[in-house]
Design goal:
Elements: H1 5-19, H2 28-35, H3 39-51, E1 55-58, E2 64-67, H4 76-83, H5 108-123, H6 128-131, H7 135-141
Antiparallel strand pairs: 1-2
Length: about 150
C-alpha cells in the first residue's frame, strides 16, 4: 500500500500544525518552506483538510491555519481514509474498468482486501498526538534553515 502525495502532504501539514501551540497560526508559505513543497499543492490540500474539519482557516491580515481539533481527536486512519481518493490496490477492486478475466474466481482479491483492512485498522489506532511524541524536536527541525542532513 502506498499513500498518494496528497495524503502525505495532508499528514505533513497536520504534523506541522500539531508541533505548534494550539492557537498559533501558520501560513501555507511557512509550511511550504519547511517541507520544500509547492505552495500550490499545499493550498489544495489545506482546503480539503479544512472541509474535513481537521484544520481551520483564519482569513485576513495576520491570518493563517491551525488545527481545528486537539491532536488527541485527530485520528490518523480517518485522515488517510478522507484524503485518499480510492483504495483500489488492484484492478478488480474497482467495479468499473475491471477487465481481469479471473476476477470471479480469484482468491487474491480477498487476501488483499484483508491486508488493506489490517493496514487501515493499524492507522486508526493512532492519533496525531501519538505522532507528536517528539514535539520539541519536530518543532525545532521545522524552523527555517534547520536540517538533519
Amino acid at each position: 500500500m502506498r499513500l498518494t502525495m496528497y495524503t502525505d502532504f495532508s499528514l505533513r501539514i497536520l504534523l506541522y500544525l500539531g508541533a505548534k501551540e494550539q492557537e498559533e497560526l501558520s501560513t501555507i508559505k511557512e509550511i511550504s518552506e519547511a517541507y520544500q513543497i509547492s505552495k500550490n499543492h499545499l493550498m489544495k490540500v489545506s482546503h480539503e483538510l479544512g472541509k474535513a474539519g481537521f484544520i481551520e482557516t483564519v482569513r485576513g491580515r495576520g491570518g493563517g491555519i491551525r488545527l481545528a481539533l486537539p491532536p488527541e481527536e485527530i485520528n490518523i486512519g480517518a485522515v488517510v481514509k478522507r484524503m485518499e481518493d480510492d483504495f483500489h490496490l488492484v484492478e478488480c477492486f474497482s467495479a468499473e474498468g475491471n477487465t481481469c478475466p479471473i476476477a470471479p474466481v480469484c482468491g487474491l482479491k480477498g487476501v488483499l482486501a484483508q491486508a488493506l483492512k489490517a493496514y487501515l485498522d493499524v492507522l486508526s489506532q493512532y492519533t496525531l498526538a501519538d505522532l507528536l511524541a517528539n514535539r520539541a524536536a519536530l518543532r525545532m527541525i521545522l524552523q527555517p534553515g534547520v536540517s538533519l542532513t
